[in-house]
Structure formats: C-alpha cells, structure tokens
Amino acid sequence: MPAKKDQTTPLLPKESKKKNKKKGQKVEEIIIQEKEEELEMENPLPEDIYSLIYTSEYHSWAFFYGLLVFGVQITIILMILNDLVDLSDSNNPLQVAPGVTLEVTIAQAISTVLAVVTQTNLLTALSRASEGYDPDISLAVNPSCTWRKFTLTVRLQFLVGILYLADSFILNMQSASVLELMMNFAALAFISDIQDLAFWLAHHGFLSETIQNETYRVEKYEIPVQHVKRKVAKKRMLFGIICTILLSLYSVVVHQQRSGKFLCKKIFVQFGDAYRPELPYFSGEYVQGSHLVNGRVVYVDPKGRSKARFAYCNKEHAWTFSGGLYPANIDPDAGVLEFKETSDPCEYWVKSTETRTYDITETTSWMIFKFVTKETLPLESFTLNCNDCDSHGSTSCSGHGACVNNQCVCNPGRSGHSCEYWKHCSNLELDERTLPFPYSNAGVFRPSNSYELLLEKDAASDNSTRPVLVYNKPVYVAEVPSQPDILNIILFTGRRWCIVLNVELTDTDLQSKENLPQYLTTNFHGWFSLFHIYFFSEPIDVGGPSDFSSNPSDLIWYRSRQWLKNGDKVFYQVDDNHPTKTVLLCSDCQSLTNDCFNGGECRKDKHKTAIINSSTTRGECICPLGTSGFLCERDFSCYEPGVKCFNGGKCNKQTGDCSCPSTHTGRLCQYGTACTIDPTKDAQSCITGVA
Prior knowledge:
By secondary structure, this protein is α+β, with helices and mostly antiparallel strands. The chain is elongated and about 115 Å long. Helix 4 packs antiparallel against helix 5 (about 60-85). It is built from 13 helices and 36 strands. A 9-stranded antiparallel β-sheet has the order 10-9-8-5-4-3-2-1-11, with no helix packed on it. Strands 27-26-25-24-23-22-17-16-28 form a 9-stranded antiparallel β-sheet, with no helix packed on it. It has 4 domains: about 50-260, no CATH class; about 265-385, no CATH class; about 435-630, no CATH class; about 635-690, no CATH class.
C-alpha cells in the first residue's frame, strides 16, 4: 500500500531513521524511539510562577511577584488546613466523617488518586530534585539560575504540593456524600491553578513590561537532559510512591471508619415514661459493641444485665432501640401476653426518624412503637448524648475532674458521669415545712421520714467505703422501727426516684441489709428485678430544672399505681392524681451549696452510719431560737402551741412575730438590745450582759 507508506515515512527524521532503523523493526517502535531522542535534546522549564522565580534576578520585580503569589497560595492552603483540623478533639482531630456509604468510599479512593495526578507542584519538585542541578549548563544559559534559586523553588513547590495534598486528603475523608466530595475537589483545584493564572497574567502584559519580559525568558529557557529513559522511570516511580502512601493512609482511615473509631464510644440515654412507664428502666450508659450490624456500630448495655441495644435497621432506614425482647403473643384486649428474645434491630421498641447517618448522636426526633395498636407516637422527654469525656475538650468532666481512659475521675466533692453534681448527700430528712409521708394506696406501708446514704466497702481500699449507685445515683435506706431486717429504700430508676422495701425484692436471696449493696450494684435492673414501688418522685430530666443534684431533695412525691402485669412482673406508674405533701431535704449542710436557713450556723461533726459500720463527716445546723428542722428551715410563729414571746413581748397574730419592748429584740424578743447575740445559747441569755 504505497499511499500508507507515503503518509508514515515523513514522520521520521532522516538522520534518526538512518541511525536507528534496524531490520525487522516496526514503524511504531521507530516513532517512539525518535520521540525519546527528541526529549534527550531539550527539556523546557514549566511555565509557572516558580520558573519565573528561578530565572529572574534577586531584587527584581519578577522575583518579588513570584514570592507574593507563593505567599497568597500558601496562606490560602494553611487557612483551609487550620479550618479542617481540630486538635482539641483527640479522638478525631481530622474531623473525618464517622461513616460513609460504599459509593462515597469508592469516590474517595478515586479522588485521592486524582489529587496526585492534578497536583503538579509536588511531582515537579520531586522530579527536579531527582534530576539534580547542573551548574555548567544552568549558569551558561542564565546566570540568575543559581544553586540557591534551584533549591528555593524546589522547596517552595514541594511545600505547596504536600500541603495541597494534605488539604485534599482531609477534605476527601470529611466528605459524607459524592456531591460534597466533588465540590470540595473542584474548590481545591482552583488553588492549584493560582500559580498558572498568575504566570498567564504576567506573560500577557497585565502587570508590567519588565515582568512580561522575564516570562519570555522562561518560555525560551531550555535545559539539555540526558538519560531520559532513566528519569522518566524515576518520575513514574515517584508518582507510584505518592499514590501508594496516600492510598495506604486512605485504607487506614476507611478501616477506622468501619470500626467506629470516629464515633462516640459511649452514649447516655434517658427515656420518658409518658406512654411506656417501664422504658426509663433502660436509661443509662451504652457502649460500642464488638461487631457491626447493617454496616454500623451498635451500642449495648456495658454491664450485660440486659440485651438492650441501639442499632440501625435498613428496612426502616432508622436507628432503633430494643430491650432484647419482642412480643410473641399479643391480645388486643389484654395486651402483650408473651415476649421472645430478639437481636433483630427491626423488631424495635423505639426508633428515630428516617436517616442515613452513621452517627446516632446526629438523630433528632424519636418515636415509640405501641405493640398492640401498631402505631408510632412521638417520644417525649427523650435524651441521647455522647458520653465520651474526652469529646468535650476544655469542658471535659464539667471542669471538675480528669478524663482517664474515657472515664471521668471527679475531684473531691464532685459526683456524676461528668462530675456535674456536688458530692452525694449523706442524709435525707423530712422538710418540717411539709407533712410526713402518707400511707400507700393499700394502706399497709408508710415510708420513713429519715434516710441515710447506703455505703459499701471499697474493694480498692480496706479502710474506706463508697456509695452504692443505681442508675449512677446513690441509694438511701432507713430501718423500720422494731423490724431491723426491713429497710425502706429510695433508689433511682432512670427518670424518677422511687420508694421500695428490701424484703420485696423477691427475685433474689440477697435481701438482708448486709447483702443489699452487692445485689443493687451487680444484679438490680428495673425491668428484670421484681419489686413493688409505693411512691414515685417527680421526673428528673437530664439538663432540666430538677436535675440540680444527685439526691432526691426538694422533689414532689406521688403515690404509685399498677400499670401492667406480665407473669410475675408487675410494672407501676406514677399516679399524677395523688401527689403527697411531703418533701425531703438534704440535712448535710454545706455553706456553699446547702446552707442553713434563718441564720443557722453550719458545723461539721462525725456521724456514725447505722447500716454499715462506718463514720462520715457531715454538716449539722445549729439553729437560733424560733426555728427548727435539720436546716433550720421551719420558722416558728408566736401563736403556735408551746411558743411564747419573752421579756414582755406581745404576739402579733397577723405576722406571727412578737412586738418587743425597746429593751429587747429577736423574733421572740429573746435578746437584749445591749448584748451580742449568740444563737446557740438559751433564749434569755446574752454574751456581754442583759439590757
């Protein structure tokens, strides 16, 4: 075919053809060989701002212009990097997306490789560094192309290139969708183009003629290169190494995403009891499980008392909660007759609204599923928070403790998951401004009006004790007079405090006061344990106005009523129609947090506990005359039985105060006006004399 031969022959230079054409060699091989020989003859500098810095003289406008463009470029890159990284978050300083879909994972891998391909600065810097500097050739072509200029431009390009790749990689791993990823990639591409745009403006005379002339020198500058095949191989090798490093980092991050590394290790949950009074029994802390379900982490009961867990249901496209049980037999009239064990997250009790998030703490509204009617209703008073103490930065442990192994170690005098409360109150007493507890609905039980903190021996120390905690709040007990084996118990059940009796904990033999701490600490669970609740407190919602202390002081109490019976288990709910007029208060006075009323003086004293042979130091109020109560909270009126005015005072029946003569003062005219008052003394005594 002569025509085809005429078309291909002119592509081969004559001298190269004579030199390289061998018998049997293909035309395509000859063309590739000729192109390689052309590369051996010349290698022009890239037309960018760094070549302009290299070829221009020191102190020239072109040199300073190049440095200015570099400064702008590196400043933008560093500002983006500073915005992307949060060093205060030790668990996830790069703010990597907690979890992404398979499509996003694939797009991240592609984008990682594309970032290397499109980032010419790093490849150019590494390539020039590998080629080295030839002073004989460079200085002969342009005396300004010194060794210092060479190293300066290589370092500047390397710095911009490596920081650009860092920005690109972090943005890739932060992207939660393909669209977000592509938009981030496009935005960063503009930063890489700044150097080319700046050179183009200078080359076309938009700045000055002097700088424009310098760009012509870059355009015409040529560097003879030898051993092109070896140097091309180096470039390929460098490209492969950079891609391998980034993809290795990418693989590590993806593995951490899949394993839940960037998610909360612990969550704290509190359920409301509007529709299901037993739900708050599952309130508390949940930790990450050891395996994934539907590609997402699960959160389980850390103590293993129940099979309750939070997991993701693909069918519902929602996070769900299950107590580990699901109705197996439902009667429309009688309700749930039988439960079965389940691990299916789609057999749920509570679920979130539809979401694709991998982070359960990003969910908003949750709904409760009614087993009998098959309807879902908004879940009221529901709280779900990350409970990792190192996720709050400077506010870790509320500023009153140290985060050790993701657990708050509170300072002396503080308590709670996040050290949010003052120390546990040692004693609860009836507020004398209110009435004692009434009898229960059945009329067979009347709670005590005085309780003390239940303590147990601290296994870590032979000589110390610690409070018994249920649902992370202390337990208070009181002995029944003439029946020392029967204890009134006040304990927290997830949202409300309740009053029970130890002898009605019928699912265990550990009913005695000696074994009670062990049982409550290791075995008790509101759902599975059998017990009779006689009284409920008002709700304690996390972060709400009543969530101010770790004890049940200053709360309103209600009678209980039976809600549901399932086999031997009876569930109780609060009877809102029957509030009591009883309020308990912490009798352990503290000058800062629980001071005495009506001018009483708080003094520390040793107190021996009745339930466990241990001594504790607590504050006791020394009350002035005319007041009573453990905190001097009750202020007597002069018209009450047994109360009188001293020193000729007259009782004012409207105010309850005494009208005193000019020689005396005080609520009951008990002090002389010329003496210094000592409220600890007798009503008619005085330190410095009597008026």
